[in-house]
Design goal:
By secondary structure, this protein is α/β, with parallel strands linked by helices.
């Protein structure tokens, strides 16, 4: 039986799809459930008491993936009375009650604006033996005030805003995440300090458009100031951010990146297309010249900067000449990495009804040419680092072949993935001494399009508080603010009534 034995806590699993926002939201979902008395189920447990799907709606196959997974869970739930299934995230915000109609064995559906309601909705669904669907149109509470169970001892996400004020014709996010809401700088910095106090070395500032941060409180230079303020936090060794928008990118942000020692010289700035005509159709309010101009300024201030991007191939109306212009910009920009996508029609977006939808085979052929061009450039850029010594923050799960090759993996300060050897000069293995969260300096010996290898002995190894936490099995937790969320188990005994008017 999946139902928890009397007196034992119920178990949960969270299954996440999509972007960094969703990953961070799943940390909050885990924090909420644990605050409410649930315990995380082991990864191998295929019958937890609660399974939460945190969904994405950006890609065309998101629906198929969700309903396929829900279908696989149906017979499992039938065999384990008391098991609950919850669906949240962007697809839940979009499909709402349609999810329960298509999959009536789902117990709870919640949206992007009311993550904090999940424990209440699970309790209510269990009590009423009926599905609970709650989708709010705007935030009931800023998500960062919720308790969070962090997945990493050494790196943490910190939201500076949620929502987006842009109107890109291919994107469904603004309708699902809402208008931009900014956190106050003091609240953000308090969360960063709390993470650093737990041993975290690296923080990534998150927003749909970090460059427009401050719009709510009337300070267009707020993001650059925030980066500089992060530089004053003792113990914070690396600061990253994602994602900026070229239309709002200002010179003060470049100066803050260059002049603040703990801000990494890595920039992820979506291009989407190199064609001005396609950018206009996408309603991206910059042009290729403006985009390349930003990159030129970044490299002038930080010659070692690694710049990554997002590119969409096959947008409605894209001609071969438009696509060639994208390849031209890719060659000129010299990206260190690129996330490439075939245009995916999303119902509810203006682009879905545009003329000029391209045949699949045309999009596929262009996509393959783009991949070949990107990899040619990223490989050449990575080869320039052979012989260089880089600082690596040791990570978990970055190297799938590490166990077989005797290497460990992590990220350099510029964000590149590095696989490094752990053998000391005398032949002694350092694998047992180097922990996730530690810092290693190592010399690059080989470059591939998507990673770097360092096959010599590490030049230096520094043990850190983050490594201590990883070794002890501790995960950072930020408590947040809870207002009236239920916990599991028997309620506390009520105090005896006061004398006088108790029986009034």
């Amino acid at each position: 039986m999946t139902t928890a034995a009397a007196g034992s806590p119920r178990t949960y699993q969270v299954r996440t799809y999509g972007c960094q926002m969703n990953v961070h939201d799943s940390e909050r979902i885990s924090g909420l459930l644990e605050q409410a008395g649930y315990v995380r189920a082991p990864q191998a447990d295929d019958t937890p008491d609660v399974v939460v799907f945190n969904t994405c709606a950006v890609r065309e196959n998101a629906d198929n993936r969700l309903y396929g997974n829900l279908g696989h869970l149906r017979p499992v739930k039938d065999k384990h009375p008391g098991m609950q299934i919850a669906v949240g995230g962007c697809l839940a915000q979009k499909d709402r009650g349609e999810i329960v109609r298509k999959a009536p064995w789902v117990d709870v559906v919640f949206g992007t604006h009311n993550i904090g309601s999940l424990p209440v909705l699970l309790e209510r669904a269990r009590h009423n033996a009926a599905a609970e669907v709650e989708i709010l149109e705007s935030l009931d509470v800023f998500p960062s005030t919720l308790p969070t169970r962090r997945e990493s001892t050494y790196a943490g996400w910190v939201s500076i805003s949620v929502g987006c004020n842009n109107t890109c014709t291919f994107c469904i996010v603004p309708s699902l995440r809402g208008k931009e809401k900014d956190r106050r700088p003091g609240d953000i910095l308090s969360e960063v300090r709390a993470l650093v106090d737990e041993g975290v070395l690296e923080v990534t500032l998150l927003g749909q458009n970090v460059n427009s941060y401050g719009v709510e409180f009337g300070d267009r230079y707020a993001f650059g100031k925030l980066l500089r303020a992060c530089g004053d936090i003792d113990g914070l060794e690396r600061v990253r951010f994602t994602s900026p928008h070229p239309k709002d990118f200002t010179d003060d942000v470049i100066a803050a990146m260059a002049e603040t020692p703990n801000v990494c010289h890595s920039l992820h700035m979506p291009l989407q297309s190199g064609s001005d005509e396609v950018l206009r159709a996408m309603r991206r309010s910059y042009r290729s010249e403006r985009y390349l101009g930003i990159i030129e300024k970044v490299r002038a201030a930080m010659p070692d900067a690694a710049i990554t991007t997002d590119i969409i191939v096959g947008f409605p109306g894209e001609t071969e000449a438009d696509f060639q212009r994208t390849l031209d910009v890719v060659r000129e920009a010299r990206f260190s990495s690129a996330f490439t996508f075939q245009y995916s029609k999303r119902p509810g977006t203006p682009a879905a009804t545009m003329d000029g939808q391209l045949p699949k085979q045309v999009v596929q052929e262009r996509y393959e040419r783009l991949i070949a061009t990107v990899e040619e450039i990223t490989w050449a850029e990575n080869k320039r680092l052979v012989g260089e010594t880089v600082e690596v923050l040791v990570a978990v799960g970055e190297g799938r072949k590490d166990e077989r090759t005797g290497r460990m993996s992590g990220r350099a300060r510029d964000g590149r993935l590095v696989h490094f050897a752990t053998e000391a000069p005398g032949g002694e293995s350092l694998a047992g001494q180097i922990r996730p969260g530690d810092i290693v300096h190592t010399t690059i010996t080989y470059a591939a399009p998507h990673h770097l290898n360092a096959d010599g002995a590490p030049v230096a190894h520094r043990r850190t508080r983050a490594g201590d936490a990883a070794e002890a099995g501790r995960s950072p937790r930020t408590p947040g603010v809870l207002l009236g969320l239920p916990t599991l188990g028997a309620p506390p005994v009520a105090p005896a009534p006061a004398a006088g008017c108790a029986t009034h």
